Amino acid sequence: MSRRAASWLAALVLAVAAFVYGAVDEGPPKTNADRVRILADDFACPVCAGQSVAESDVPVAREIRRQIAVWVDEGRSDAYIRDQLVAAYDVDIDYNPSGSGITSLVWILPVIAAGGIAAVVVVMLRSGGDPAPTPETQPSQAGLSARRRRRRNAVVWTVAVVVVTTGAGLLVARSSGSRSADGSISGEIRVTSRELIFEAQRRLGEGDLDGAIAAYDDALELQPSNPEALTYRGWLTSRRGDPDTAARYLDDAIASDPAYPDARLFRAIVSLEQGDGSTAAVELAVFDSLDPPPYAEELLAQAQVRERVAAASSADALAAVDALASLDERPAFSEAALSVDEALVAAEALAGRGDLLEAVQFLDWVLESRPDDPDVLAGRGWLLVRSGDPELLELGVEYLDAALAADPSNPSALAYRAFARWQQADLAGARADLAAFDTLGRQPPDLLRLIEDQGLRTAVGS
After folding, report:
1. Cβ contacts of 240 within 8 Å, gap of 6 or more
2. How many CB atoms lie within 10 A of CB 88?
3. Residues 82 and 9 in one domain
4. Which of 363, 370, 358 is nearest to 334 (CA)?
5. Dihedral of CA 202/206/209/210: which sign?
6. Measured between alpha carbons, how far is residue 66 from residues 42, 195, 217, 254, 265 in Å?
7. Do 156 and 211 reside in the same domain of the chain?
8. For the residues 262-283, what does the mean pLDDT come to?
């Protein structure tokens, strides 16, 4: 091979190598948040017109962004994420053509075309140096052999170029949607999200709210689905008077880790700030079920969350009762837009404002549709037990007995009957009910607080 041919071949190899390197290399390492944003731009919002997942703020787009963040933080590849989203929402969600099958030609054909053009240029340059033969200068046999050799070499180089460029196109197509999890987003990150969270806590302890928020933002750049960073970023946002934005951070935290108690607690508080008592009650119930740590219980007490949730729930329940009372004819409970829990809260609210008889009658209305419901029977019995009248006390015990006949492990009926037996001086019976209550796997926090606040265990020697 001549030096000119070798130089052309070397240039071609370098060009192909540079093209492949440019297509595969992503530049400086990105944070996880950068990768989430890039991926979110690559997918269409399933329910929007002309918007990507990154651009839309409808619930399904937010949920897809959350899930992408979780996958990215788990180290999943782009190919895995694409496969999961396409499987869930159909192929139309993917803005980018696939790296396989017929659509891979979108990536491969331009590279093949470039390679073909390069090969033609090489052949033209090689053939351009030889003048056309004349009768006086007919080529010798050796000259003809050399010319055939050059043509054969040109064909071989053309085929080689096409093969190389086709391989480069395939490589680009395959790499276009399959960055590895530890490729462009690892090595250069020198600070961990945990260190940034510690930094945020330190700044918060110093009263530097803006610095703490900035540190949490940095942590979320590295790990967008970190539930602790999302939770406290949301909490600090609420402290700055923006409960709606705070709620979005907290919802993302709950989506990332439904069992993180701090997120549930702060979501309950923010819901109260938004005037949404029902959501606050739900979040508080989930918080109680998670066996929260002592510091979270202290925060709950300091913010008087239980009292505020109870007040909001009572207000909502009383509003529902008043709406029913305004009707010319009250419908059956089974036809009303009330749950049993809401009915019990309404009865307690009526009793709390001094309308004990009305509270009892309200539960009688519920029992007309649900005569064997243990919770309603227990609630009505408890109203009578607290009346202070000995005859009503006896009647209340009968309702509690009926509740336990329907459900021997009903926690409310056991706790309320223990109080009733104590009032009847039946200490052995009260201790037996408390012992049965203690064996239950589910012990509602409000009943535990009632027993503790009233000193029932000490009173009956349990």
Report:
1. 209
2. 11
3. yes
4. 370
5. negative
6. 15, 23, 16, 10, 20
7. no
8. 93
State CA 346 to chain mean position distance: 34
Which residue matches tokens 């009260």? 430
> Residue 224 class from Cβ within 10 Å (0-12 exposed, 13-18 middle, 19+ buried)?
buried
Sign, CA dihedral 120-121-123-124, equals positive
Structural domain count, the chain: 3
Residues 11 and 160 both lie in one domain? yes
Can you tell me which residue has the tokens 């200068």?
A: 137
Q: What is the DSSP string of 259-308?
A: T-HHHHHHHHHHHHHTT-HHHHHHHHHHHHHT---HHHHHHHHHTTHHHH
- Report yes or no on 234 lying in a domain: yes
Q: Which among 267, 287, 303 is the end of a domain?
A: 303
* Residue 391 one-letter amino acid: E
- Identify which has the larger pLDDT, 124 or 187: 124
Domain containing residue 427: 372-460
Give the dihedral of Cα atoms 260, 266, 271, 273; nearest 10 deg: 180
> Comparing 19 with 219, which gets the higher pLDDT?
219
